[in-house]
Design goal:
It is built from seven helices and 16 strands. By secondary structure, the protein is α+β, with helices and mostly antiparallel strands. The strands form two sheets. Strands 7, 8, 9, 10, 11, 12, 13, 14 and 15 form a nine-stranded mixed sheet that branches. A seven-stranded antiparallel sheet has the order 2-1-6-5-3-4-16. Strand 10 and strand 11 form a beta hairpin. The longest helix is centred in the N-terminal third of the chain and has 16 residues. The radius of gyration is 19 Å and the shape is globular.
Length: 275
């Protein structure tokens, strides 16, 4: 699940990729992106993706980014062309924003869709903690060598991915995920999201807003590696969906099927919206 599939299509500002127009994205890492799963030409949380792109473009480049422009470019690359490329209904799509000469330029890539195993036990992840936090963590920025390298080292050590931590073992996020923990309280289970610097992922935001109505109140609080044994379960979220965590370093968690059914059910109820 962590190996990127081959890119099927790349367009830059609605034009086919060429050696010339790929030169800037290939050599300049100043930029940001969002990643989404498309099914039947629809996306969960499309408005949140557009808001993320606009906010980061304003912060990095001092320009707004029109959401309809983004949607149009996604539709364009999925639609294909009259020369024979067929339309693509299901895909993994990324929208990268660069700013050659100060003006936002959008590179859209299409890969095959990512589908998680149906059984939660088959999705369960083992994470290795590493001493790294993403700079400017609130932006989904390009040039993430540190998290990619630590992810590779984690997989070499027999884990599925890395868990990023700061001073004192404070947990931030996964290398490509957000992470949440379940704690038992006198009033029942509660979901705790680490409040160390992190990217507020789209799937995390969609789930968090809906969990209280499903009987799972949430909170943001410090979580450290020393705290791990006090939690009963953990799960990660990203554009692929929701997966339980079975182990962090030497701390093992049983897959809480009831909890995961509730969390996954909340996510499945999020509407797919036409791009």
């Amino acid at each position: 699940m962590t190996t990127p599939a081959l890119v099927q299509r790349i367009e830059i500002d609605g034009c086919p990729a060429t050696a010339e127009n790929l030169l800037w994205p290939a050599l300049v890492n100043t930029g940001h992106f969002t990643a989404m799963q498309v099914r039947g030409g629809k996306v969960r949380g499309i408005d949140l993706h557009l808001d993320r792109l606009d906010a980061a473009t304003r912060e990095l480049f001092g320009r707004g980014l029109d959401g309809e422009r983004v949607r149009g470019l996604i539709r364009h690359i999925l639609r294909g062309d009259p020369a024979g490329a067929s339309a693509i209904d299901d895909a993994s799509v990324r929208v990268h924003v660069h700013a050659p000469e100060g003006e936002p330029s959008l590179m859209v890539t299409v890969r095959p869709p990512t589908v998680l195993p149906a059984a939660m036990a088959d999705r369960a992840r083992a994470l290795m903690s590493v001493p790294y936090q993403r700079p400017f963590a609130h932006i989904k920025h390009l040039g993430g060598f540190g998290q990619a390298r630590y992810g590779e080292l984690a997989r070499r050590a027999g884990f599925d991915d890395a868990l990023l931590t700061g001073p004192g073992g404070q947990i931030s996020e996964g290398a490509v995920t957000n992470i949440a923990f379940c704690e038992r309280t006198p009033d029942g289970p509660r979901i705790v999201w680490p409040n160390a610097p992190h990217l507020a992922g789209i799937t995390m935001r969609l789930i968090e807003a809906r969990l209280p109505a499903a009987g799972l109140p949430t909170a943001h609080a410090p979580v450290t590696l020393a705290d791990l044994p006090s939690y009963t379960a953990a799960f990660v979220t990203n554009a692929w969906g929701v997966s339980p965590v079975r182990r962090i370093d030497s701390v093992a968690y049983a897959v809480d099927e009831k909890l995961m059914a509730t969390v996954a059910g909340v996510y499945e109820e999020v509407s797919w919206v036409t791009v």
